[in-house]
Structure formats: C-alpha cells, structure tokens
Amino acid sequence: MTGFLLRRLGQSLLLLWLVSVIGFAVLHLAPGGPLAEFTLTPGMTAAELKRIAHQMGLDRPLPVQYWEWFRRMVVGNWGRSYRDNQPVLWEIGARLPATLELMISSTLIAVLLGTWIGVLGAVRRYSIFDSLATVGAMIALSIPTFWFGLVVIYIFSVLLGWLPPGNLHTTGNSSFLNYAWHLIAPATVLGLVTVAIWSRYMRSSMLNVINQDFVRTARAKGLPQRVVLLRHSLRNALLPMIAIAGLQLPTLLGGALVTETVFTWPGMGRLFLDSIGYRDYPVVMGILMLSALMVIGSNLVADILYAVADPRIRLR
Amino acid sequence: MTDQWDGLLRGAMARAALSRRRVLGAGLAGAALLGLRPGVARAAPPAKPTGQVVIGFSQEPTVFNPLMPHIEVDQGVHLNLFSPLWLPNASGDFVPELATELPTVANGGISEDGLTWRVKLRPGVTWHDGQPFTADDVKFSFDLINNKNFRAWLRNGFNLMQDIKVESPTEISWRMAKPYAPFLALLSWTFIVPKHILAKAADPNTSPFNNAPVGTGPFMWKERVPGDHITLSANPHYFGKGPYLETVVFRYIPDLTVMFTQFQTGAIDYIGLQGITADHYNQAKKLKDRTIVVGPAPFTESITLNLSRPQFKERAVREALYAAMDNKAIIDQVYYGLPSPTVTFLPRQSWAFNPHLAPQKYDPAKAKAMLDAAGWKPGAGGVREKNGVRLAFLNSTTAGNHVRSTAQQLLQQNWRDIGAEMTIKNMPPAVIWGDYFNLSHYDSVMVGEDMMYGGDPDVTTYFSSKAIPAKGGAGQNTMEYVNPEVDKLLQEGVSTFDRAKRQKVYWKLEDIIRHDLPQLCIFQYVTIEGTKKGLIGYQPSVYVSCNTWNVKDWYWGTS
Questions:
Q1: pLDDT tier at B43, thresholds 50, 70, 90
Q2: Of chain A residues 249-268, which have a CB less than 8 A from chain B?
Q3: Do B226 and A94 touch (CB under 8 A)?
Q4: Which residues numbered 78-97 in A keep a CB inside 8 Å of some CB on B?
Q5: Does A142 reach chain B within 8 Å, measured CB to CB?
Q6: For B498-527, what is each residue's pLDDT tens digit?
Q7: Is the pLDDT of residue A55 over 60?
Q8: Considering only alpha carbons, which residue of chain B is nearest residue A57?
C-alpha cells in the first residue's frame, strides 16, 4: 500500500508539472494578449500599451516568465490577476464556495436520483419505467446545458415566476431559504447530465449483481425483497460506482462553466471563462492547476477507497 | 463534450467581444428615439437617501484604483466613488466638481500662452474616511500618474506637466511644456485619489486601496463579492447635490440574454453598458412598467483600411469602395434602422462635429466607372487588377459577433458587384485587438471606435503621421494615414483653448479626412438601455464611457 501510494504520488506530481508546462506554453503562445482589452479605449496609444506591458513583465522571454511563475507557485504565491490586481488564490477562494455549493448539491441530486432510477430500472427491466428512464437519459445527455438552462429560466422564472432567474441570492436578502430557493434551478440543471450517466451505470451494475448466486441464496433464505435489494445487492452494485464518481468530477467542472454563466452564479467556471477571454494568464493558470489537482486527487482517492471498500482488491 | 467545450469557448470569446461597449454590434435594434428628459421629474427627490437601485452590467468592474489601466465598465463605478476636478455633463460642458470653477483664459485660470494653469479647489470636502481633501491630494494624484513605478493608465498630457505647486490647501498650479487644449478634457476623466492612504502603500500597484477604494464621490464603498456584485452606499457628506439613493448595487451578468431576462423579471432595475440586444428590442418595448431608452453612443462603425496595402493606396479605389457600400441596407436590415448614417469619426453630439460633410451615396455604377477610369481592369474571376495588384483584401472583426458578420456579408456582396474581392477573417477579441491591429497586420477591419478621450475631439493619436506604431510612432494610427495638412491642423487644434477657433479647425480636419477616406464610416452607434418605470434621473451621455455617470441624481418617483 505504501509503495503504491508513493508511486501514485510521484506520478501525480509529474503529471501536474506537465500540465503546468503545457498549459503555460499553450496559453502564452496563443495569439493575443491581456492588453488587447485596452486597445480601443479612447486615447490609448501603442507607446502606452508598450509601457504597461513592460511594467507587467509581459515583454520578458517566455521561459523566464514560466520560471518566475513556477518558482513562486511552488511556495504558494500564485501571482496576481491582471484584471483585479488581487492574488490569484484570493480570486479563486472568493469563487470556490459558490462552485462547491453548486457541485455538492447537484451531485447529491444526481446520486440520490440516479441510484433510485438505476436500481428501479434494473429490478423492473424492460418495464415502462425502464424504457422511459432509458429514453430520458438519452435526452438528458443530448440537451446542451446552456440551452436547457435558458429553457428552465424561461418556464419557471419568466412564465411561472416560481424560481428566480439566477444569482446567488436576492440583493439584500441573504437568508438560508433565499439561498436554497436560488439553488434549485442551477443544481438541477447541472445535476441532470450526471443523473443520466449515473442511472445508466447504476442500472447495469445492479443487473450484474442481482443475477449472481448470493442474491439467489438470499432470496432462497426467504429474505424480504427490500432487504435483498438494499443490503445484499445495492451495496455490491455501488462498488464500481466509486471509480465512476471520481471520473465524474471533470464532467461536473465542465458543466459548471456553462451553468454558472446561465444562472449568473459567481463561481470558478465563470472566473475561468472571463479569465480566458481577457487572457488573464495568472488566473487561468491558477484554475488550471487547481482543477488538475482536484481531478488527479479525486482519482487517487477513488482508487484508495476502492481498495478499502472491496477486500478482493489489493494495491501494490 | 468536445462540442460543448468548443461552443463554450466560442461563447466566451463572443462575450469578451461584447464586453466592449464600442464593439456594440449585437446590442442594437430599431425604433424611434425615446429620449428621457431629466427635467420632467414626476416627483421631488427624497429629503434623505432612500431605497436601492440594482444596475445590471454584462461585464465585471474589476479595477477600483481609477488611475490604473481600466475599461468602460470600471469607469462606470469610478464615476460614483470618486470626483474629478470637473466633469462633462450630457451636453459636453464641464461642470466643476472638486474645483470651484473651470479654469479658462478669460478667468485667468489658464495664462494667455496656455502654459500656466491655476485651479481653485472646493473647501470643506472630505474623503469617505473623514479626512479632509486638499490640494496635496491633487498634486499626489498627478505625481502618481507620472511615477515610473506606477502602472498608470494614460500619461498623455500629464507628461507635459512641470512644477506642480500646492499654493494653498485650496489652490494648485502647474506649468505645461507646451499649450495643450485637450488637457481640460483629460482632467475631466482623471479622478483624484487620497494621498493619506496611497502615499503609505509600499507598492501603489498592489495597495489594499485597490480593493477598498476611498473617494470623495457621492457613494461610498461597501462590499464586493467578486464575480457577482459591488455594493455602494450613499455618502452623507457628499459636497454636491444628492445622492438620493441609499444603496447602489452593480450586478455582473455575463450573458446578454440572461441579463435581459433579469431585467424582464425585475431582478435588475437598470440594464446598462451593452444594454438590450437587437433580438429583444421589440419584446422590451412591450414590457410593462419598464422604460426603454434609445440614446446616442460615441462610437462610429467603420471599415478601417490599412493604407500601406497596395490595393488601398489610391484614393480613387477608396472612393469607389465607399460608393459601392449600401450603408442604408446595413443600417436597416442588420441594425433595425436605429443608428444614424455618418461619414465622420465624431459623434453628432460633439461640439466639433461637422454637419456639412458630403453624405455617402450608394452608387455602384459610379464606383465601377471610377475604377475603370483609374485603370483597374477586371481580371481572373472578375476581380479587378492594376499593375499586378488584385483588388482583393481581408476584412476582420471580433469573432462571434453575428450582427457584425451579417454586415460583413452584405459588404462582401456590394464589393463583389464592382469587382473587388473581400475575404472575411474574424478573430477572438484578445487576438484581433492585439498586435494584429496595433501593428497594422490587417488589410481592413470592421470596428466601432470612440476617439474622444474625455469628450475632446483631438484625434492626433489616430490620424497624425507621427502616430503610426508600425513605423515606431507612439499613437494608434494603425491605418498608416499620412497627410501633412492634417498634421498641421491637429497641431493647431490642440494649441488654442478657444472653442470657436478649435471648432473651425476640426471641421476642416473632418472635411479632409472625409475626402481622403482612410476609414469608410458607416454609422454612429446607439445604446438601447432600460429602467424600471419610476426610476427618475437616468440620462445617457456620449461624454463618458458608461451611463452610470449621474447615479447621484437618480431616485424612485411615486409610481
């Protein structure tokens, strides 16, 4: 186990370093730059742009810029945003709670709903419910999140007036209920794709389990259906889902980019999009590194959890 | 997922494109000018600041030190937190703010030769933290702009200042290296910052002040939730009239469609900056309890040409291209008939706008005849040629702006009709407005530009032969336009403070540029913005970058 951990940690660090080099190179070598947003402001001149670029250190050779960035990043100084002049970690920290709130609640919806649909679909295979769930999952996977979000806003906010059209909370009202009310639509929209994926995996995993001998034995013992399903089958069927949960993180992060824009949710996804648009290199790099860290880390955790949950698996 | 990512990134670029008010393409739609009149208030303003207004911006204000590089949306916040010495009102007249009067040659504030300036300051003004405002703060602000370690916004004009002297706590004087008339306007966009806070900062570029600004303006900083909103509250010690609102919230809504929905559902009280988009205009007009205002914007949409390209060197070619443009069709079909056609770079609201310029006329037959006469003969594929040069060129604008690209396609057709081949090559904003534009790597661009810094018509930066960056010049003459007479007029225009004299100079200048056609002007932009009914005081102005310049005059009427 220790050997496995050390090896995986080493691999992860190497991977992170590669992400940083490639990310930095691609970002800086792409045409355009962070000062383009000032070009068309009245009175701007080439000389002033050149001076500002020099003051920001943008005219130094790329390897020098990378080394400067890397040296500081390792010790926790991730640089300052070109737009706000605030430390990158502060920028991310200010957005992280909103994103986590959204991701956790949508994951919760996805896991609960997805497990229920998957289990029911497996138990009542080829029933009307199962067919509907299959078609529904295909539709949910095919709908572009951006469009779906706008439709939800149109129906539930504009036409019916039941839900707010986005934002974290009503200006001037920061009660828990107000937050929760604002969370419903974006969490559902973001969770929808995951529900679809999760329910499909859950269904096949469950199907796999309920046809096995020990389940038949449990039934033969005369155990009630509920116990057979929940205690014997579900627990085993959930095992492979641990790995899938780890793989869901990138999907969630990607979906959050869109959802946060549609629902004006002040999270990391929007920060990332804005920062790319403005070529705010330090912030883009910061989010890139953090996302890589989260994805690599969650995969590692999933692997370890897998071993813990399933005694048949030994990590070497 | 790949498609989703592609679409996403494209969307991000488009948003960033839209995030400039000047690249207003998508923000246009048609109908009559409604024009709110500030004088027709239905109720008197409240005795003490009451209520709140939520302002929706499709771009996030992020820069709160007003002397650092910023864009329009940032100015929209600065105008409420800080005060300049004087500020242009909606008709372009300077109104004293921190100064007690506007310095003129007549009142002795500016010497006859235009070299010595003397400004009297308002006594009894305090910063939001209670400290008194004095001439020291003004001197400090000027010095900071010229401080070589400070990442200052524009130094143009400030680098001419010498011997800045604090005469008394309420008077400051300085000398200029040469007379420079636009400096009045430059100062009107220069907000004074507090010495007692910034002088203590180890590095003014990263001072905590940058995220907790202290000003002398009508509203005070309360909080900022990054990526979401900024809250300001009324300054009870404001030196001027107002403010009448207790709280002002600037909410950032990154998508224009989403912003409109929030306006529709009442989550925001005022929809600003890019405002309402073309496809929502008719719907907006029908909204209950909303006032939609179509106002002038200082941006001129044009096809800006790179005159160093052999195709564009001859004036006859440029004139023929201009005559072949069906500008009316662009305005009516693409922009819903709302913007007004123009042939010059200044908005018609400017005091220097020349109303007597020859209008552009769509006449393809005449265009063909001109090209024939100039020796451009149809060659392979119907594209005209002369001395081995084909009349073919690229046209670029910000990618993702569908309205613009429709207009490009119309022009492509117009020009194909006379034997000129235009190829569309659009790019993300961070690319096109980088070196590609600045160093004249383009053939032609479709761009909406506001050339008036502080509302002044001085355009030396854009048309002087010494301002060509590709040739080592300091300005933004990326067209590489050279005309000695224009150079002379530009010099004349900044050397006198007499507005009547300056007006004559600029009229002549516009006439020459209209004749030379370094840019083929199409129309002047409008903004379509809206407020909830009952919100009184909103007034668009072409003399500022953002229409939240007078929130101190806003209040809720009884409706």
A1: low
A2: 251, 254, 257-258, 261-264, 266-267
A3: yes
A4: 80-81, 83-86, 91, 94-95
A5: no
A6: 999 999 999 999 999 999 999 999 999 998
A7: yes
A8: B151
Most confident of A164-178, B37-51, B318-332, B468-482: B318-332
Give, as one character, the DSSP assignment of residue B160.
G
CATH number of the CATH domain containing A165: 1.10.3720.10
Q: Could you report how far apart the first and last alpha carbons of chain B are, in Å?
A: 49
Number of domains within chain A: 2
Identify whether residues A68 and A137 lie together within a single domain: no
CB contact under 8 A, B258 and A146: no
Number of H helices, E strands in chain A: 13, 0
Q: Is B391 on the interface with A (CB under 8 A)?
A: no
d(CA A156, CA A185) in angstroms, rounded, equals: 9
**Domain span including residue A44:** 2-74
Q: Report pLDDT for B263.
A: 93
Check CB contact under 8 Å for A251 and B1: yes
pLDDT at B124: 94
Domains of chain B: which residue ranges?
34-81+217-289+533-559, 297-526
Write down the CATH superfamily of domain B34-81+217-289+533-559. Periplasmic binding protein-like II (3.40.190.10)
A73, two tokens: 């990043």
The shortest C-alpha distance from B556 to chain A (Å) reads 17
User: So what's the pLDDT on residue B21?
Assistant: 38
| A82 falls within a domain | no
Residue of A nearest to B16 (CA): A277
When pLDDT is averaged across residues A44-68 and rounded to a whole number, the result is: 89
pTM of the model: 0.83
Task: Tell me how many degrees the CA angle A31-A34-A38 measures, rounded to the nearest 5.
Answer: 115
A42 with A168, same domain: the answer is no
Topology of the domain covering B297-526: Dipeptide-binding Protein; domain 3 (3.10.105)
Kindly state the average pLDDT of the residues A92-102: 88
Compute the mean pLDDT over every residue in chain A, rounded to the nearest whole number.
Answer: 85
CB pairs under 8 A between A and B: 220
Q: What is the dihedral of CA A55, A59, A61, A65, to 10 degrees?
A: 40
pLDDT digits (tens, 9 = 90+) for A176-216: 888 888 888 999 888 888 888 888 888 988 888 888 888 88
**Would you call A166 and B262 a contact, using CB atoms and an 8 Å cutoff?**
yes
CB contact under 8 A, B255 and A262: yes
A271 and A151 inside one domain = yes
Q: What letter represents residue B229's amino acid?
A: H
Q: Kindly report the nearest CA distance between residue A45 and chain B, in angstroms.
A: 4
Residue B541 structure tokens: 């102005």
Return the sign of the alpha-carbon dihedral for residues B40, B43, B47, B48.
negative
Q: Is B454 in Cβ contact with A166 (below 8 Å)?
A: no
User: How far is it, in rounded angstroms, from Cα A84 to Cα A77?
Assistant: 16
| pLDDT at site A194 | 84
- Chain B residues touching residue A167 (CB < 8 angstroms): 228, 251, 262, 267
Give the mutation candidate from B52, B203, B261 for the A interface (greatest A CB count, under 10 A). Answer: B261
Which site among B55, B59, B438 would you substitute to test the A interface, given the most A Cβ atoms closer than 10 Å to its Cβ? B438
CA B364/CA A175 separation, integer angstroms: 65
**For residue A256, which residues of chain B lie inside 8 Å, CB to CB?**
none
The pLDDT tens digits of the residues spanning B345-391 come to: 999 999 999 999 999 999 999 999 999 999 999 988 899 999 999 99
Query: What is the rounded CA–CA span in Å between residue A120 and residue B185?
Result: 72
Q: Which residues of B touch A262 (CB under 8 A)?
A: 255, 258
Return d(Cα B4, Cα A145) in angstroms, integer.
8
Q: A235-262 and A268-277 are packed helices; what angle lies between their axes, rounded to 10 degrees?
A: 50
Amino acid, single-letter form, for residue A286: G
Quote the pLDDT of residue A316: 60
